[in-house]
Amino acid sequence: MTRNRNSKIRALLTGTLLVVLTVLVPGHAHSADPDEGGLADWHARYVGARSVGLGGAFVAVADEASAAVWNPAAVARVDQMELQAESVRLFEDTSVNLFSFVMPNRSLPSFGITLMSLSSGGFERTNELNEVLDEFTEGDMAIHLTAAKRLSPKLSLGASVKVLSQSIETYSATGVGADLGVVFTPSDALQFGASLLNLGGPEITLRETPESMPTEMRAGAALRFMQGGGLVSVEMANRNGYGTEARAGAEVWLMSSLALRVGYHGENLAMGFGSRLPNGLRVDYGFSDHELGGTHRFGISYSFGGFFASSRAMPEVFSPTGLNPVTKFQLIARTRADAAEWELIIRDQSEQIVRQFGGQGAPPSHVQWDGKNVGSMPLPDGVYSYCLTVHDVEGREFVGREFSVEIFTGGPQGSVPVEVN
Fold it and tell me: pLDDT by residue (tens digit) across 15-67?
């Protein structure tokens, strides 16, 4: 399959998904109770820079450090240690900020912590004559402490302790609750997720009347296609007292480093994009329409360590006929179970495989490439992509980032000045 054909297919799928979501989803989205403003309503409605682009349909997708906000079990599906920070700018002086960290483990459960805070100001304090005295602010904070375990390559369970604190004027209080979640992955392409949130609270009493966060149930499915480059996610969420809401979204990676997203969050159109940067960095942006105006979300994450597959060519430019006749691919992999097999694939600019290396067990520390194809014929000058994939004995797949290496056999470029006497 050529790169041009891939581009056409991705463009067609993106357009098709946008049309399907635009036509079908609004007719199935419900918000049974139009009244908002319940205890930590901002937390229940939270969507981040990536998840808003998927319409908030994230219970079966959550594969990042903040996974516990949607589904505690999804923390076990994060393979690398990850730091994540997000900022959501809402209306007036209101903003929500998030910071998450997750640490995967092989035999012990994976652990995660997420801090979320709401800051809102500009509220007027008045007296009995409705005269403005001054202004006050509201500040909420939620802490998720999560443990999750892969019981098998297909099934993961997780639980979170949720601590919520609220402060309004001179009043403040704290409450504790719990979240439970499950993720089931019958195949590489299909994944199901479900969570039960706010069990037993948190309950807060600011003055005299106690308030509890409503219990919420979420269930959804995610389908991956185009070898993981495309994703469609759907979800149903029921919050006690607020009714049931349908959510849906799609994500397409146009290149290995750029993704576009579109979906519906509530009854509003949402969209966004993401970009993978070198050295484990990813940045995301999301926009959601609202009757009060658009809202913007920004996020950045950094992945390191944990379980992964990695390959780097040294040198990145070589000449089979020059001083650097070969390049050496340094291979590193750390899998949850023992490695079963590995494969390093090299492709040309048309996405055709020109050379591949592989074997049983863990990959060696390095392999060398002399710039020839599978038939031992020299390849033309150009840029070639490569990627390492490792499978462990329990069937998990670890796919490394895609990088480029260049064959260049030409001589020095430029011109030599000639003096005419």
Answer: 444 444 444 344 333 433 434 556 778 888 899 999 999 999 999 998 899 99
Q: Report the CATH number of the 308-407 domain.
A: 2.60.40.4070
CA gap 362, 342 in Å, rounded: 7
Contacts 24+ apart (CB under 8 A), 131-136: 136/168, 136/169
Amino acid residing at 5: R
User: Omega into 202 within 30° of 0, i.e. cis?
Assistant: yes
Interval 137-171: pLDDT, tens: 667 899 999 999 999 889 999 999 999 998 776 77
pTM listed for this prediction: 0.75
Of 278, 281, 246, 280, give the one whose Cα is nearest residue 263: 246
**pLDDT digits 0-9 by tens, 213-239:** 899 999 999 999 887 789 999 999 999
DSSP class of 42: H
Q: What angle do CA 22, 58, 223 make, to 5 degrees?
A: 70
Spatial neighbors of 312 by CB under 8 A, at least 6 apart, are 329, 330, 403
CATH topology identical between 3-303 and 308-407: no
What tokens appear for 239 in the block?
A: 């919050």
* Contact yes or no for 296/305 (Cβ under 8 A): no
pLDDT given at position 52: 92
Task: Read off the DSSP letter of residue 305.
Answer: S
pLDDT of 137 reads 63
The C-alpha torsion from 27 through 31 and 35 to 41, rounded to 10°, is -130
List the structure tokens of 306.
Answer: 């944990």
What are the residues facing 384 on neighbouring strands?
A: 405
Distance of CA 156 to the CA centre of its chain: 18
Rounded to whole angstroms, the Cα distance separating 236 from 225 reads: 22
Cβ contact 178:171 at 8 Å: no
Which architecture characterizes domain 3-303 according to CATH? Beta Barrel (2.40)
What dihedral do alpha carbons 273, 278, 282, 287 form, nearest 10°?
-20
Q: Is residue 4 within a helix (H) or strand (E), and if so which, with residue range? A: helix 3-24
Provide the residue ranges of all domains of the chain, joining segments of one domain with +.
3-303, 308-407
Beta bridge partners of 355: 346
DSSP character at residue 300: E
Largest CA distance in the chain: 101
